[in-house]
Amino acid sequence: MLGDLISWFGDGANWRGSGGIPAQLLAHVEFTLISLLIAAAIAIPLGLFVGHSGRGGVLLVGASNAIRSLPTLGLVTFLFLLISGAEAAAIIGLVVLAIPPILAGTYAGVSEADRVVVDAAVGMGMTGRQRLWQVEVPVALPLIMGGIRNAVLQLVATVAVAAYVGLDGLGRFLLDGLKILDYSAVAGGALLTALLAVLLDLVFALLSRIVVPQGLRVAARGAAAGGTHP
Amino acid sequence: MWQELLDFLGSPYNRDQVLVALGDHIYLALVPLVCGIVLAICIGWAAQRWRPVRAVALVLANLLFTIPSLALFLLVPSIIGTKILDSANVIVALTVYTTALLVRPVVDALDAVPSHVIAAATAMGYRPIRRFVAVELPLAVPVLAAGVRVGSVSNISLVSVGALIGTGGLGVLFTDGFQREYYAPIIVGIVLTVVLAFVVDLLLVALRRALTPWQRASGQPAAAEPADSRGGAI
Q1: Ranges in chain A, pLDDT < 50
Q2: Is B43 within a domain?
Q3: Angle, helix A86-111 to helix A137-161, in steps of 10 degrees
Q4: What angle do CA B200, A99, A148 make, to 5 degrees?
Q5: Residues 6+ apart with CB under 8 A from A108
Q6: Residue B61 lies in a domain
Q7: Which of A92, A174, A210, B117 is most buried (most C-beta within 10 Å)?
Q8: Helix then strand then coil, % of chain A, to nearest 5
Q9: From CA B92, how far away is CA B96, in angstroms rounded?
Q10: What's the pTM?
Q11: What are the chain A neighbours of B174 within 8 Å (beta carbons)?
Q12: For chain A, what is the total number of helices (H) and then of strands (E)?
């Protein structure tokens, strides 16, 4: 098995052309990031609004829990038949699945911002807008980034599944390999997909260290352990 | 679309197929859930006693949870030597996810058991194993239950991906509908998956209430459920 795997990775033909490893890896990352951007552009403002105003929180949590239980394969195949274009269908499906984690993180971060801190901001005479941008958003950043990391994992996994309806990406090696019984391609593709997920998770973990304000990190160290996203 | 749906469900053959798929789905989702809970509790127990186990378990749990489902389904056979299209692969992979999801809540919940409670149990003559089962574990149930609910939704949704590697379950309705360009089975499959996740969730809430009678007796609110950190389906 290991020998097959090594010879698959060693075969130059697997690295060239539009179906090669670099091209599919790039496609996988591209679909992941595009869907992430669209999902974040919808989920973060919505989460901020609901968390800040406190209106519609129950509805939002209920809706995002319902979306969470949607089977990814069902959603992607349904959208494919509805739209009959692999890329558009897959990206809509990916966006739908990436919204709940980001929305939940943003909403939880803003609505659970320490009341004492928010009250202090009110006491200092901050307007609603100032309070949102200068207090609630920075305090919510760790949870927002946690939501984004969950969304990235969800997206990398779903891009692979969407290869079933014809989307490019590392999922091609898995499903095409299964079809022609080329198990070294299957194992190689699975390994690459797993590595990509681990790598992207590390990149976003690093990113969240960079964007989370210094003061919060000190506070978190004080509060010790049990962060939401390990 | 409605007519198509009614036609699909009108045929006894289709109804049988759907019921078989539903039965498979429940089996493929719940067996790993139970195995995962047992494994996570064992690992949590070990992590409580030995520091290195704790560090390794938490890092490994994070790493395993990161691996995409389809990739894990296909990596399992080359690791444990099963056939590539065996449904055991799905069960093993989902057990890995459930365990990975639950290890941290179990460890956190066991950490949170007040030391005076443990001291009291020891003073009453409880041996370590019995103390763990009769005192520490029940006190960890509220936190554990929150994790189990996330795990059950995630498992129920992920079983469908197994259809791509030829296992049963409601996912078969998706591949079937896709190949025949037929909406009805896909819609039935999606609705049943969501309803199944909802029903199992209700049962788990009822189970948690039954297992934690003291929370009702003392009128305490249910323990704050930890923010759903890694939740959802991968």
Answers
A1: 224-230
A2: yes
A3: 150
A4: 105
A5: A51, A140, A143, B227
A6: yes
A7: A174
A8: 85, 0, 15
A9: 6
A10: 0.86
A11: 71, 73-74, 77-78
A12: 11, 0
Burial A144-153 (b: 16+ CB within 10 A, else e): bbbbbbbbbb
Please give the Cα distance from A17 to B85 (Å, whole number).
Answer: 29
Those residues whose C-beta lies under 8 Å from the C-beta of residue A53, and which sit 6 or more positions away, are none
Least reliable range by pLDDT among B34-48, B77-91, B161-175? B77-91
Nearest by CB to residue A77, choosing from B153, B178, B230, is B178
Question: Which residue is listed with tokens 């739209």?
Answer: A83
**How far lies A34's CA from each of A94, A208, A217, B132, in Å?**
9, 19, 29, 48
A47 interfaces chain B, CB cutoff of 8 Å = no
Please, what is the end-to-end C-alpha distance for chain B in angstroms?
30
Indicate whether B226 belongs to any domain. Answer: no
| Interface touch A174/B181, C-beta < 8 Å | no
- Nearest chain B residue to A68 by CA distance is B232
**A30-84: pLDDT as tens digits:** 999 999 999 999 999 999 888 888 788 888 888 887 888 899 999 999 999 888 7
Establish if B227 belongs to a structural domain.
no
Specify the CATH number for the domain of residue B118.
Answer: 1.10.3720.10
Q: In the CATH scheme, what is the homologous superfamily, with its name and number, of domain A23-218? A: MetI-like (1.10.3720.10)
pLDDT tens, B27-74?
A: 999 999 999 999 999 999 999 888 899 999 999 999 999 999 999 999
Burial class (CB in 10 A: 0-12, 13-18, 19+), A49: middle
